[in-house]
Amino acid sequence: MDWKEGQGPVQVPGQNVAQDVAGAAGEASGPIPAGLEALYAACRRIYPDQPNPLQVTALVKYWLGGPDPLDYISMYANPGDAKLNIPPHWHYISFGCSDLHGDGRVHEQTGLENPSGFGFELTMRLKREEGEKNPPTWPAAIMQGLAKYVFQSESMLCVGDHVSWHCPLDNSESRVQHMLMGEDPQLGTVSTPNGSVQFVQIVGITTEELKATQHWNGVGVIDIIKRLPGAGGPWMLTDMRRGESIYELDPSVAEEVENGIETEGSNLSGVSARLAWTEDEASSLPPLTCQPPRSETDADSEPSPRISHVESEQIRNTLQKGLMQGANKTGIGHNLQEDKGVSSDVEGNVPTTDSAELFVTQRLESLHLTINLESGCLLPLALRGRLKHGRHFTFKSVVDVSAVTLVPPSVAGAFVDASCPYASRGPWLQVFIPDDLLPTMVEDLADLADPDEVTLPATFRWPNRKLAITVVAEEM
After folding, report:
1. Closest Cα partner for 41 from 208, 33, 113?
2. Chain-centre distance for alpha carbon 102
3. Model confidence over 312-344: pLDDT tens digits?
4. What angle do the packed helices 218-227 and 253-264 form, to 10 degrees?
5. pTM (2 decimals)?
6. How many other CB atoms are found less than 10 A from the CB of residue 403?
7. Interatomic CA distance for residues 129 and 120, integer angstroms
8. How many other C-beta atoms can be found within 10 angstroms of the C-beta atom of residue 394?
């Protein structure tokens, strides 16, 4: 990436100096593309005195084979608002997740009535330290990392989504180690010649706040952050020096979150995982590299057939679209880390008949599921926050299209039930959890809520149900 500034370039260590904003558009010999100009106009309405902000740009544009999907990231100096107790801060704004050009070079042309490109751009507001003259560049790197995930997975980031990062966002000793998505309070949603664009703001959060987001919902946590100046305030500023979580800033938050979990459940419908399964629940744990059991149709030929691209797309689309009757369409929570492999939470919807009939259904008489620690620790959330409230939960493989969906009795459209609790269709396994088993599983898996106290591998068995779950270390 490369810095550029309209009024005299600023040299940044490890970065090159480029031209001004007009040249930044890659249109030095012609007009700025209409989609990009519409976004620039939205920024000028807020920052009329900063026509040429500091800007990071991809040296080789994405459509020319470059690695960075975001063409540009502008960085504005926002004075804040003393009346609202909002301190001065840096305001980062991306350009590239939406359709900037409208000519099909990056995104399909969708028209004025539809979202432009992926339908959003990213922003972030970072509290400005006293005496700080130039904005830090690490937020731009995080934005590019998130954009890469979006382009690779074709999954949009929405208000209420979260990103578990497991590392201080600026590589310091900060407690702010994860991200939550809100709507930018000043930019909101704008119309462009290529469709609508929502500005989705990255909000830095602590581990305690991430857990509240996962067990309850991101929108609820965002509302709490907005009313607490120390957590971000109404403009949701990220303060990397913040030492207190929302629970410490306002002790009443704990009861509010707990009540939300009990009455509303969780809006997180699935997570990425490393997983495998075998039909014998009494067997030794299956390795995470093993494949799902093959159907009789598969077994008739060697080698076993690969899933076609079309079938893979149908399965992925079914996971994301929420076609099940009565299913709640919820935001996608994301779990990724830069340079350490990208994985995503998914909308784990039970497949409907159209896509499920791609494969022959194989009934399993018993089941032993193996799952990695980070994803396995969300099993209590899946049971208490989802299945208890009549909602399904899916663990989606990070290495292929396989998935495991936990299904309560009230979910329609599943191919498992009380008479056939475990069944697979190709790479898709469904596990029926009856109402009388749910409290027992919640109690037995309670220790997973504190992963530091779990001795791995940890196997949980319910022999009368012919079911076992083994949680293994991340490296297995």
Report:
1. 33
2. 27
3. 454 444 444 332 332 333 333 544 443 333 333
4. 160
5. 0.75
6. 25
7. 28
8. 26
